[in-house]
């Protein structure tokens, strides 16, 4: 099953809220997202992505048949890291294990390397998130190491893995 990665539209809010209103997904993302995740939350997010600096925030909807089933974004760092960016993504649970995350990551990395001056994209999934690690590996990212005791999520101190891909 293929996906298309495209710009956000305000009319995506209902689909986004449905996809992200899932504790299993939220437990693998950074803090700051409310649960339950509502249509109002989705509208606020989409608005923020549409208004974001186009030279530092590259945010896309992951879609199948134009229905939003996930989100992916690349966020440029600053100072001496201005040619480096972090990628983050998620896919609705009903679409896990179908290659959609890998397809979306490949599409976005290709876009970033072809259309910006970014030369390195990295990701930091939680150590236990084998699905996300596999997506990165299948997308050409290399494992660089484990960031020990790097985060606290839901009151638990966690290791994270560091992956990157560089523009050749």
Explain the overall architecture:
- The structure is a single chain.
- The protein is of the alpha+beta class and about 170 residues long.
- The chain is built from five helices and seven strands, in the order βαααβββαβαββ.
- It has one domain: Aminopeptidase (3-Layer(aba) Sandwich), CATH 3.40.630.
- The protein has a seven-stranded mixed sheet, with helices on both faces.
- The protein is globular and about 35 Å long.
- The model has no long low-confidence stretch (mean pLDDT about 95).
Q: Count helical runs.
A: 5
CATH architecture assignment name: 3-Layer(aba) Sandwich
- Head-to-tail CA distance between termini: 28 Å
CATH class value: Alpha Beta
Compute the number of strand runs.
Answer: 7
> Over the alpha carbons, how many angstroms does the gyration radius reach?
15 Å
What would the CATH topology be?
A: Aminopeptidase
Low-confidence stretches: none
The sequence of SSEs as H and E is: EHHHEEEHEHEE
The CATH fourth-level homologous superfamily: Gcn5-related N-acetyltransferase (GNAT)
Number of domains: 1
Largest sheet: 7 strands, mixed
Q: Tell me, rounded to a whole number, the average pLDDT.
A: 96
Percentage of β-strand residues: 25-35%
Could you say which structural class the secondary elements and strand pairing correspond to? alpha+beta
């Amino acid at each position: 099953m293929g996906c298309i990665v495209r710009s956000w539209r305000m009319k995506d809010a209902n689909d986004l809220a449905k996809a992200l209103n899932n504790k299993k997904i939220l437990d693998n993302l950074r803090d700051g997202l409310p649960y339950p995740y509502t249509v109002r939350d989705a509208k606020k997010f989409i608005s923020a992505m549409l208004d974001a600096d186009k030279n530092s925030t590259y945010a896309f909807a992951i879609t199948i048949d134009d229905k939003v089933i996930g989100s992916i974004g690349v966020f440029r760092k600053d100072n001496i890291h201005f040619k480096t960016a972090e990628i983050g993504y998620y896919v609705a649970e009903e679409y896990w294990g179908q290659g959609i995350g890998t397809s979306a990551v490949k599409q976005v990395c290709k876009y970033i390397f072809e259309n910006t001056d970014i030369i390195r994209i990295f990701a930091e999934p939680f150590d236990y998130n084998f699905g996300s690690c596999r997506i990165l590996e299948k997308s050409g990212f290399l494992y660089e190491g484990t960031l020990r005791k790097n985060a606290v999520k839901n009151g638990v101190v966690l290791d994270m893995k560091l992956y990157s891909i560089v523009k050749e």
